[in-house]
Write a structure and sequence with these properties.
The complex is a heterotrimer of chains A (292), B (221) and C (260).
Chain A lengths: L10 H36 L5 H5 L12 H32 L4 H15 L2 H15 L6 H25 L3 H9 L4 H30 L2 H6 L20 H11 L5 H34 L1
Helix pairs in contact in A: 1-11, 3-6, 3-8, 4-6, 5-6, 6-8, 7-8, 8-11, 10-11
Chain B lengths: L2 H32 L3 H32 L3 H30 L12 H22 L2 H31 L4 H33 L15
Helix pairs in contact in B: 1-2, 1-3, 1-4, 2-3, 3-6, 4-5, 4-6, 5-6
Chain C lengths: L11 E12 L2 E12 L3 E5 L6 H7 L10 E9 L2 E2 L7 H7 E4 L10 H11 L5 H14 L3 H4 L12 H13 L5 E5 L7 H14 L4 E5 L3 H7 L2 E6 L2 E7 H6 L4 H7 L5
Parallel strand pairs in C: 3-8, 3-9, 6-7, 7-8
Antiparallel strand pairs in C: 1-2, 1-4, 4-5, 9-10
The chains are: A mainly alpha (292), B mainly alpha (221), C alpha/beta (260).
Chain lengths: 292, 221, 260
């Protein structure tokens, strides 16, 4: 008979365990430190410019002291427009892929297309937007060119998020719905989508954040000029956004307070994005409290 | 083998052992009727005590099996029937005791001929065959035992009438004859008990209740 | 087909003749024929994987939602072929309700769970729904326990309550048949006993078919028991007959636990 081995933990494995724990903690702390440094640097640079006036003023072309009022408007406007276009398409495609499509070559091909679109560098999408909307359709640099091209950026993400969230709906819930005599559409609308809502919403907000920060696409489609009228809802005018403005002001360099304006713009963008992320969490918690 | 099968086997062997004691008691009473002896009477009482012990033990085994094993189908029938066979065997033992007690009071014998012997022999045969049917799962044998009961009843009736005649003819015989009547009554009851055991065996093997055929209007398969 | 000794007074609700079922290439059920009587409880027992749940789900065609299946032979309800008789499968599922193995209430309020079915069919008047919800919850023996918390989430209830809620949810659309797929296998004995009592009450107005791997449950609750093995019906009879004198040796062996 073989003797039972003695089970004793070796000193070295305990040490390795403790070491790893320390390393991982360190990494986490590193992240926080980096974020603080990063935000801190930007705020420090942009501090002199950040005041309500900055947000409410129109930009200057040559002198110091310009504001970013129209850019704020354009950034938000473009996000809303592009989401308005991409949401129905993305949701629809996601619902189709999760609930209606049969598993097979067609579905795999569709998935390949979407993933390719998702992986396309935004500069390539920008070029596409410029060639098709700005030049071929003759819309030139405008809000509508920018919104449409941004929509192309958003659709694959929304589709994927919708599909994944719907696939995560437990089969038993859908079975229960069908068992009661619901049609496929009723099941999707009344059971699957409500369950997937948090996931989809989170994806939506992240998409909005990405669209908000996008620069390459908008440089080539919405242009580097902002309307002098405020607020200008026309789709045909150019719409410089915060991100484009930041780039333009820095690379052009003619404004005396270019550095400060750029930093201030960056600070505003960061603040908006942080609040957006906070909003996601709050909405998520509220939905969860209501249904679970 | 499953634990339950082991327990069923134990139950079966216990009933076989208890039946063995019953058969021994019948044998003793037959011998005692031929040649009375206080030793034999004493042994019958001793065996009766063993019967009672068996009854308690086997009763409990059956109840435990019902409680713990939730038997179904043939297992259920076997255990339910065992619960009915066990008291039948115990009663056979009691009847043997009654006979043994009366042996001194029927001697010297008032009845001539072998009717008495035959009654004893047939009763013993019925009990043995009923037990064999139980042990050997033999439905045909059980059926035969049930049919034999009529013969025993007839024999009992004949001896009874003979005894009545003897009592009327000779008043000095009355006491012994009346005890003898009680003895043959006990034999007849033992035969009934053997019949009941055979009916239970049929229930175990075939799943239908063979009792009271007169109640069944149309014929049963 | 076996004939019971006491004449059955209830008509036949569901009838199966020579039915076979395959998932793609794989044949799961074969040569099935049985009759299910109205307002009786019919239990289906058998070892795991013998096709009992698959068979059950054929009665409300719920397979078709997720896979391509092939059903041959006849399955009739009230004399009309479920598959080929022109019955709309969505309407079929209202008439033939289902309760699943693991309780699966929607992550909504108790009220909304019960009201879900009626809403699907266009009932929206508040008063009607209120009445329907109370009525159904009473039928499911749940009203007293939840009447003060109808707006609370269904997922906060105990397993046994959730299952009774699922039964109520199915009852809310007034089905004629209730299919139960091992409804108590995830529940403790007390919850199980409550549901078994419920089944006995419900059968007065409902035909119930219950799949169970618990033979004692089949014995307690059903009028008829059918024994399945490897996709075939081995024996079907009155429950008391199956459990005292089964006719087929395989049934006897399964019931006494000597295999399976």
């Amino acid at each position: 008979m073989v003797a039972t081995p003695v089970f004793r933990r070796s000193r070295s494995s305990k040490l390795v365990d403790r070491l790893m724990r320390g390393i991982l903690w360190g990494i986490a702390i590193l992240f926080v430190v980096v974020l603080i440094l990063f935000v801190g640097a930007i705020l420090k640079q942009g501090w002199p410019v950040l005041n309500l006036g900055f947000l409410a003023k129109m930009p200057e072309t040559l002198d110091a002291g310009g504001g970013i009022k129209p850019q704020i408007f354009n950034s938000i406007y473009l996000v809303v427009l592009s989401l308005g276009l991409s949401l129905p398409v993305g949701l629809g495609a996601g619902v189709y892929m999760a609930e209606y499509a049969g598993k097979g070559r067609a579905l795999n091909f569709l998935r390949l297309c979407i993933e390719t679109l998702a992986a396309t560098p935004s500069i390539v999408l920008a070029l596409f937007g410029m060639i098709v909307f700005v030049q071929a359709m003759g819309w030139s640099f405008s809000i509508r060119s920018g919104a449409l091209t941004l929509a192309l950026l958003n659709i694959p993400v929304i589709t994927r998020v919708t599909e994944v969230s719907l696939l995560a709906v437990p089969r038993e819930l859908k079975e229960a719905s069908y068992g009661l005599g619901a049609t496929r559409l009723q099941t999707i609308l009344k059971v699957a989508l409500p369950y997937a809502a948090t996931g989809i919403l989170t994806g939506l907000v992240l998409t909005a954040g990405r669209a908000f920060g996008e620069s390459a696409i908008l440089v080539f489609t919405a242009g580097t000029n902002a309307s002098t009228r405020f607020p200008d809802f026309r789709l045909t005018v150019p719409g410089e956004t915060l991100s484009v403005h930041l780039w333009y002001v820095t690379s052009d360099g003619t404004l005396p307070d270019a550095r400060e304006i750029a930093a201030g713009t960056a600070a505003v963008m960061i603040l908006v994005l942080l609040s957006l992320n906070l909003l996601v969490r709050l909405v998520d918690r509220a939905i969860r409290r209501r249904t679970r | 083998m499953r634990q339950f099968d082991v327990e069923l086997k134990e139950l079966r062997e216990g009933i076989m052992a208890m039946a063995g004691v019953a058969e021994d008691m019948i044998e003793l009473t037959i011998q005692a009727m031929a040649e009375p002896s206080p030793a034999k009477a004493e042994q019958v009482n001793h065996l009766d005590r063993k019967m009672d012990e068996w009854e308690l033990r086997l009763d409990q085994q059956c109840i435990d099996l019902l409680a713990l094993r939730s038997p179904a189908a043939s297992d259920l029938r076997r255990i339910a029937s065992s619960l009915k066979i066990i008291p039948e065997l115990e009663r056979i033992g009691d009847h043997c005791c009654n006979i043994a007690r009366r042996v001194p009071m029927v001697h010297p014998p008032v009845l001539a001929g072998n009717d008495l012997e035959q009654l004893g022999a047939e009763t013993r045969s019925m009990v043995r065959r009923a037990v064999d049917a139980f042990v050997g799962n033999d439905a045909a044998l059980a059926q035969a035992v049930i049919l034999s009961d009529d013969g025993v009843d007839a024999l009992y009736g004949k001896i009874y009438r003979d005894l009545l005649r003897i009592m009327l003819a000779d008043p000095l015989c009355i006491e012994r004859a009346s005890h003898l009547i009680l003895v043959i009554k006990n034999w007849e009851r033992i035969a009934d008990e053997a019949t009941n055991i055979a009916e239970e065996v049929l229930f175990i093997l075939e799943g239908h209740n063979a009792k009271h055929p007169y109640l069944r209007g149309d014929s049963v398969e | 087909m076996l004939i019971p000794t006491v004449p059955e007074t209830k008509p036949i609700k569901l009838s199966v003749r020579n039915m076979a079922f395959s998932y793609g290439e794989k044949k799961v059920l074969d040569g099935l024929s049985m009759d299910i009587h109205a307002e009786r409880v019919t239990a289906i027992i058998g070892p795991s994987g013998c096709g009992k749940s698959t068979f059950l789900k054929c009665f409300n065609r719920i397979h078709e939602v997720s896979s391509a299946v092939n059903v041959s032979g006849d399955m009739l309800m009230d004399g009309v072929d479920i598959y080929r008789g022109g019955i709309d499968e969505v309407d079929l599922r209202r008439r033939v309700g289902m309760v699943f193995q693991k309780p699966n209430p929607f992550p909504k309020s108790i009220y909304e769970n019960v009201a879900f079915g009626p809403r699907l069919f266009g009932v929206s008047d508040r008063a009607t729904l209120d009445g329907l919800v109370e009525d159904t919850l009473r039928k499911a023996a749940l009203w007293d326990e939840v009447k003060d918390r109808l707006k609370e989430s269904a997922t906060g209830m105990s397993g046994g309550q959730q299952q009774r809620l699922c039964i109520a949810r199915a009852l809310a659309v007034n089905p004629e048949v209730l299919l139960m797929d091992e409804p108590c296998s995830a529940l403790d004995p007390i919850a199980t006993a409550k549901i078994e009592d419920l089944i006995t009450e419900l059968k007065e107005n409902l035909t119930i078919v219950i799949v169970t791997h618990n033979m004692q449950q089949a014995a307690r609750v059903s009028d008829y028991t059918a024994f399945f093995w490897l996709g075939k019906l081995v024996e079907m009879d009155l429950t008391e007959r199956i459990f005292t004198t089964p006719r087929v040796q395989m049934t006897e062996d399964y019931i006494t636990g000597r295999f399976g």
